[in-house]
Amino acid sequence: xxxxxxxxxxxxxxxxxxxxxxxxxxxxxxxxxxxxxxxxxxxxxxxxxxxxxxxxxxxxxxxxxxxxxxxxxxxxxxxxxxxxxxxxxxxxxxxxxxxxxxxxxxxxxxxxxxxxxxxxxxxxxxxxxxxxxxxxxxxxxxxxxxxxxxxxxxxxxxxxxxxxxxxxxxxxxxxxxxxxxxxxxxxxxxxxxxxxxxxxxxxxxxxxxxxxxxxxxxxxxxxxxxxxxxxxxxxxxxxxxxxxxxxxxxxxxxxxxxxxxxxxxxxxxxxxxxxxxxxxxxxxxxxxxxxxxxxxxxxxxxxxxxxxxxxxxxxxxxxxxxxxxxxxxxxxxxxxxxxxxxxxxxxxxxxxxxxxxxxxxxxxxx
Length: 366
What we know:
By secondary structure, the protein is α/β, with parallel strands linked by helices.
């Protein structure tokens, strides 16, 4: 980065003139680059952008996306060259290598290495090539294993991480800090959101890579479909988790891009009254894994036995975020867990029962 300082020092920081005009932080005529546009989060961000009138050619707006085979986000030279040509005004980093406990355990190097490179390459290239705003999406796994509950933003780096997802968490922490320091040193308008556990359309149902929510849905739906008499789930089922529908995250992304300027006097501050450049996003409600399994069992009408394998790891016992700060600037989640669960399960069962095209999101379901 040092070799490129002369570019950064002379950047046109047009966003600074908008600090007192929160509604103008992004515009209908902006071009948007959503990295990771085919993933669950990327799809939700695009749905939310279009729902709110962005990326519409009639207003001069534009949505820019790029597939993996045409742009390797882990290759800095390729990413920087791409930004030089396309020059998006607004960037959302939803791209990441993701997975559950098993995937993190089996592929720790790939989880830390690929996610570090994705974050660094996009953030720096966006800054160097004139992007005006950037939103980096992290994860609640960035917080320490024994963080105070509910978890406030100040808990970051206060203690050691949960070992089962440490590689992914370290990479996400690095992304947050890249945004924080590039904002501080070069006045680049980079912000971050830390979502809680996500679920909804486009989730990953791969047996090795899925998170607990998708894993449970898949097990119960297939057990019901194939008349399997029992299901074995990892751990004790006692850990508590918070879940956010991905479309609520999509709406939050647009909301903070429109309205959140960390340098504004009205913006959320930490306990030392310093401006925050990252905010938690969740519902504030938690449910045990065992109760979640029971809820899914009822919705899928599965009547078999649920067995809990106590030899498998539980992960962090409780992990619910304090999302009061994002709520203080006017955002609220709208989709309840029950509503979201029913909608997702009914959709999957309909696809399976009618033998419809499973599409990319469900390609690993069967």
